[in-house]
Design goal:
Order of helices and strands: EHEHEHEHHEHEHHE
Largest sheet: 7 strands, parallel
Distance between the termini: 34 Å
Structural class: alpha/beta
Shape: globular
Strand content: 5-15%
């Protein structure tokens, strides 16, 4: 039974692989036996992360919004490994406001900057489109593969703005509109691509994680935790099992689906 989860001799690409969750995705795939291609914007960070996984892994700098960058990465990967079997579209941006004192005002829908909206769509949606097109086409040509698009609970439900209130009930920050909108788009893009490439043997699924505890302030963690059925935020490793399931033959009859791993956040 455990052989179903093996990725031995498979080539797995992770975009945004040097981030909080991306690095854990890369570690999980390596642990399951895959040759992992660590992709992110910083070449040295990619090389360092790949080396930490073992000598057979590869670090490649990639800008997911640039077709030439992705094409060069594809050629390098195929030259080294000969095939691509798994693509984890993890690279994404979440709004960061330069001045925390102004974040409460700038993150309001009424004031939200157009350039931040456009940048989110460029990375979170166009980036997934380009990665799937350029790195996924070799899978379609070989007749097999698994693409995993990382979305979010906020691609399924609207943000509960109350969890961003401080102890005094004031908003220092609002969850802005671009992240939920782009993650919702990714979920339906998954369905499109699953339908388009199903006859080619390429499975395409979404993994929708919940919030990860990562040094947020105590009030936010309390607010978030109270909305989950399991009574806690996720740890970065909580999504590794789900990722290996989607990448491997354990999910061989699953495509076009959205696997929600959120501690029960969206259940009520």
């Amino acid at each position: 039974m455990l052989d179903l989860f093996s990725l031995k001799n498979k080539t797995a690409i992770v975009t945004g692989a040097c981030g909080l969750l991306g690095s854990r995705h890369a570690e999980a795939l390596a642990g399951a036996g895959a040759n992992v291609v660590v992709c992110d914007i910083s070449e040295q960070a990619c090389i360092d992360k790949a080396r930490s996984l073992g000598t057979q892994h590869l670090g490649v700098a990639v800008d997911v919004t640039q077709p030439a960058s992705l094409s060069a990465a594809r050629d390098q990967i195929l030259s080294k490994y000969g095939h691509i079997d798994v693509l984890v579209n993890n690279a994404a941006i979440n709004d960061m406001f330069e001045n925390p004192l102004l974040a409460g005002q700038q993150s309001m829908f009424e004031n939200y900057p157009l350039d931040m909206w456009n940048k989110s769509w460029e990375v979170n949606v166009t980036g997934v489109f380009l990665c799937s097109q350029i790195l996924g086409t070799p899978m379609a040509n070989q007749g097999s593969g698994s693409i995993i698009n990382i979305a979010s609970t906020y691609g399924i439900v609207g943000p509960d703005q109350s969890i961003y209130k401080d102890k005094d009930g004031k908003h220092s920050f609002y969850k802005s509109p671009s992240y939920p909108a782009t993650k919702g788009a990714i979920i339906n893009f998954t369905r499109y691509l699953a339908a388009y490439w199903g006859h080619k043997g390429v499975r395409v699924n979404t993994l929708s994680p919940g919030g990860v505890e990562n040094n947020q302030n105590e009030q936010f963690v309390k607010n978030y935790t109270e909305k989950t059925l399991l009574g806690r935020m996720a740890s970065p490793s909580d999504y590794q099992g789900a990722l290996i399931f989607l990448a491997s033959e354990a999910s061989s009859y699953m495509t076009g689906a959205n696997l929600v791993v959120d501690g029960g956040w969206t259940a009520i």
